[in-house]
Amino acid sequence: MTRARFFRKISGLRLPPREQCRANSVITCPIEHNETKNINEMQYARPTEDIPGPKALPLLGNWFRFLPYIGKYAREDVSTQLRMLRDEYGDIVKLDKIGFRRPTILLFSPELCKKMYRVEGKWPVRITMETLHYYRKNREHIYNGQYGITTSQGKAWQDIRSKVNQFMLQPRIIKVHVEQISEIASDFVERMRALRDPETLELPSDFNNELLKWALESICSTAMDCRLGCLKPNLAADSDPQIMINGLREMFDTIYRMEMQTSLWKIYNTPNLKKLFRVLDTVYEIANKHVERAKTKYETMDNSTNQRDHRILEKLLRIDKHTAQIVALDSLMAGVDTTGNVFGGLLYYIANNPEKQEKLREEVMSVLPDKTSRVTPKILDQTRYAKACIKESLRFFSITLVVLRTMQTDVCIGGYRIPAGFNVLACHSLIAQDPRQFSRTQEYIPERWLRDNTEFPSAKEAHPFASMPFGYGPRTCIGRRLAEMEMETLLLTIIRNFRIEWHHGSLEYENRMINTLVTPLRFKLIDL
């Protein structure tokens, strides 16, 4: 009896039918929580070499398959590359010998993704953005051995994450910031009204940059407890807000060029590496200036009463000033381009589905009686449909294409042995649009996320791990609750003031380190 047949017999599983599973190449492991059972899985796991995928050639490896013009997978659009690999090889794919990159396993099944999270370990490792980590290790006068949530690993990551979790993942503490975020949302709506063309009522082609200003102003109010002034009219190109926006955009672009394309930055200081250092130094100087101001303000405040609700930065400063500074920097780097681009996608889907927009407006009108009404925590507790709209938009337009984990030990996923040190990518963005998971997958249907929905396809029909825009487990996105609160607050404020229309074709975006909109967001805003 072959090993594959024996494993299938003892597990009671069937081989998937896709082209007879590429000649019996995929077996689905049962999800286990017990270490002893995992050892049994490893005993009968198939070797890594059997995982389907493009075979590396001697000397050439696999890198030539991704070369521009001549490579089979030569696409700027990473999602297209992933889709091609999935269609050709199935739900688990191996990629190795591509330049200096670690061997990588791609997962296109929610059950396999679930398994990845189950074996990620107590302190999940995510070896990514190595260039950012390299910068931080070369700036010890700033980081002093504490490299932040984004790039730290192991116990060092756990130490800082445990300090921050209690403040950034508790709804009670997030609610403290709703008032200031609502004020920013109201200011931004007035900015949108002023930016419209008086004849066409359309926003200008550079509105994408305005969304980044809103995102930066919002994250500064929570991470640094200040208004940076991003929403002022006629903001100068050399102003702190615009320099930071440009710098963060350049940061992601430069990291992508060094880590996803061919680069020799590990061998010598390439021009891109030097550029990254210059950009990050500039961002740090501006951010640190405002963190220091906040520290001075809190030191002079009257702390004799415990009745006042403290904000995130203030709480962190009371525990560890250095941690507060590092978390503020992490928040800026992770919370501007991500939130700004995702919200632009949300407005696109709302504008292109007028019947859903009207249903949302009914909910908004019931909680915001006037155009100038401010959003409160109590209102956010009542807006179920707005939350469903955000979830459905994230199903189409996620922050990133994949969630990455670096295996710390040899594990079994999909019936195969995955060695320690391999990167495993859960491709949730493609899975979330898989018709095997969501009915009417190409339709924007917020109702699928409502518990009492009986009229439309329900998200309950999909695998629980099909749509995971913020990841899962101990290393889930720590800024998730803040980002959702910011987006929902602005969405309610906009819908209360405008009817939004779109007349410019399909939305286009680039898949790099994050998903970045390239279509000019020329929404038409009609006053209510």
Q: In a nutshell, what does this entry contain?
A:
It is built from 22 helices and 10 strands. The strands form 4 sheets. It has a 4-stranded mixed sheet with strand order 1-2-6-3, sandwiched between helices. Strands 4-5 form a two-stranded antiparallel ribbon. It is of the alpha+beta class.
Describe the structure.
The strands form 4 sheets. Strands 1-2-6-3 form a 4-stranded mixed β-sheet, sandwiched between helices. Strands 4-5 form a two-stranded antiparallel ribbon. It is globular. The termini are far apart. With 528 residues, the protein is an alpha+beta fold. The protein is built from 22 helices and 10 strands.
Based on the model shown, name its key terms.
528 residues, alpha+beta, two-stranded antiparallel sheet, 48% helix, globular, disordered N terminus
Amount of beta strand: 5-15%
Kindly provide the radius of gyration, computed on alpha-carbon positions and rounded to a whole number of angstroms.
24 Å
End-to-end gap = 72 Å
Major pleated sheet: 4 strands, mixed
Provide the fold topology:
Layout: H1 3-11, H2 19-24, H3 35-44, H4 78-89, E1 92-95, E2 104-107, H5 110-118, H6 130-137, H7 140-143, H8 148-151, H9 154-168, H10 171-174, H11 178-195, H12 207-223, H13 240-259, H14 271-299, H15 312-319, H16 321-335, H17 337-351, H18 354-367, H19 377-380, H20 384-396, E3 403-406, E4 411-413, E5 416-418, E6 423-426, H21 428-431, H22 480-497, E7 498-501, E8 509-511, E9 515-517, E10 524-527
Parallel strand pairs: 2-6
Antiparallel strand pairs: 1-2, 3-6, 4-5, 7-10, 8-9
Helix pairs in contact: 9-15, 11-12, 11-22, 12-16, 12-17, 13-14, 14-16, 15-16, 17-20, 18-20, 18-22
